[in-house]
Amino acid sequence: MKKNRPKGLRFKDLAGRKFGKLFVIDIFGKNKRGYYWKCICDCGKKAVVRGTSLSNGLTKSCGCLVGKKIKHGHMIGHKATKTYSTWGGMITRCSTPSSSNFRSYGAKGIKVCDRWKDFRNFLKDMGEKPIGMSLDRKNPYGNYEPSNCRWVDAKTQRRNQLGQLALDFIKAKKLDGKFLAFIEEEK
Ligand SMILES: [Zn+2]
Q1: How many Å apart are CA 148 and CA 137, to the nearest integer?
Q2: Are 2 and 23 spatial neighbours (Cβ–Cβ below 8 Å)?
Q3: Which of 52, 59, 70 is nearest to 21 (CA)?
């Protein structure tokens, strides 16, 4: 690696800047993949990180953050807790076209809010999944987000989904001074 500091216009000096937990001390060198920087992490460890990884947010720590990410205690060996698998199922049916339920979720535009793409935030907002309950959206057309979600028993969930969907088809007309409600068949 070349050690001298470049002067070109395209060179972005990152020294003195902070990216996540990393503080950039000085340039380390350059190779085909770009410039590398000497950094010090908030945890005290030193790290050498590629400039583009810093500026696009890919690397935010010496690695100590990556280690923390899985320390939510919801993966025991290869077995996920019920809460973790509920979260995983939600992410999958909204974002993986090959998943069996994608048709009824992701394909219909139902999304998981950005905050909940991180399991820890989901856990913080929703708490542990209570036994026998499932994740329900109050508005079945709405997204997975804190204001629209709750844990309910299966019966309540079914009633909520059917109730909301049925409302779309219920029509009413006045007949001899009385209202007549009827359900219109889907065309
Ligand atoms: Zn660190």
Answers
A1: 5
A2: no
A3: 59
**Interval 40-87: pLDDT, tens:** 998 888 999 999 999 988 888 888 776 444 556 776 666 778 898 899
What separation in Å is there between the alpha carbon of 36 and the centre of ligand 1? 17
Q: How far is the CA of 44 from the centre of ligand 1 (A)?
A: 6
Residue 94 DSSP class: H
Please enumerate in sequence order all residues whose Cβ is within 8 A of that of 148, keeping only pairs 6 or more positions apart, or say none.
Answer: 137, 138, 139, 142
Gap from CA of 3 to ligand 1 centroid (Å): 25
Round to whole Å and give the CA distance between 187 and 170.
Answer: 14
Rounded CA separation 16/133 (Å): 50
